[in-house]
């Protein structure tokens, strides 16, 4: 961590201003080599934004503002310098090059935040939330990331860890002063505590799906025979005209993807080619793609034409679907030919069936609601605080250790119980990074964008 790193912190492309960030022991030196205040009387005062120019040697690169922030109250906890120059694709790059020539090295993705973590300013869960916030696709997802950045997840985990450690402490006290009358009392109290932690973790796991969906999004795949109204329904869900609607069967040949904010859940909706056996080579590829899409779906939305009888292909489709299913009996504005009971009879257990009309909008809001509920499968987004697979794994590990501890407590093998409780404590510690391995830490920061 001795070297000084630099990177462009703002996104590439046209923009008014770009920020070049420099962090490390040499930040001040690097800045003073490339930046000259406009008025020579104007010296760089810490934490004061100063107007001046950036130079690469004697070549003037840009007019800019610059600031020097001394350690430790900075993003990285190190000395930090920032240069605000003009945006676009050329200037920011040349300012960065000048900073590199002046002694900095190019930062790796996530390296600034990694330094904040290694410097002890934030824990691992907070560091993860930085990237989650940057990549949030709905306001609700952004709010959840901000809450994690403020330490919400870390505090929840810490509170459970403290309970485990307290329990270990009084088990160990009993072990130090063995007394057969006290052991059952200690075990009973420890069981109560461990069960409390276990229940809290189990609840967190149940809601984790919602947390992960907020961050990673939900994949909903639209399937159905040609001309049932998939594209029209997609448009109704998007409240915009995006997909091409025609009445020539088989026009949606490729897979069309659209982003949708479903009550705060970021959704990637794919409209697939009509799933019917076909001789047409192009359409054939589309059908294969649709099948592949279906395999990775969180929810499959099957669109049936309510003004037609169910076809054999549609019955086959119903059997083929593995993901949770929502069925829209579309064209509800026309005289019904498929009656609901008939459609319901061939649906897999748990599938939702709704009447919709893409034309009049009838049932579309209810369809939105059904898709939302089906995706979450009972998980509550407002209760969700585990937001990544990494957290889920850590909690699963802790739960396994807790079950083992409970078993040991019930048979009064207190020494084993203490070991298992410690193992559960350690598993949870991986979330905040207290017990995370270097490998895990590297993997987390590697998914960061440059400049953060
Ligand atoms: P896709 O092939 O399944 O994507 O179907 P489209 O969305 O292209 O629709 C096929 C035809 O059905 C078009 O002529 C649409 O206008 C019509 N259509 C779609 N939804 C409805 C609906 O709810 N009611 C009625 N009456 N017609 C619809």
What do these coordinates show?
The strands form 2 sheets. Strands 3-4-5-6-2-1-7 form a 7-stranded mixed sheet. The protein is flat. It has helices at residues 27-34, 91-101, 111-118, 124-135, 139-149, 152-176, 182-216, 230-238, 281-295, 312-320, 340-345, 364-376, 389-410, 414-432, 438-446; strands at 5-8, 17-23, 35-37, 50-56, 59-69, 80-86, 105-106, 218-223, 256-262, 265-271, 299-305, 325-330, 352-355. It has 3 domains: 5-107, Gyrase A, domain 2 (2-Layer Sandwich); 127-213 and 388-446, Up-down Bundle (Four Helix Bundle (Hemerythrin (Met), subunit A)), CATH 1.20.120.430; 217-381, P-loop containing nucleotide triphosphate hydrolases (Rossmann fold), CATH 3.40.50. Helices cover 47% and strands 17% of the residues. The protein starts with a strand and ends in a 6-residue tail after the last helix. It is of the alpha/beta class and 452 residues long. A hairpin with a 2-residue loop joins strand 4 and strand 5 (59-69). The protein binds guanosine-5'-diphosphate (GDP). Guanosine-5'-diphosphate (GDP) is lined by residues 224, 226-232, 245-247, 252, 274, 330-331, 333-334, 357-359.
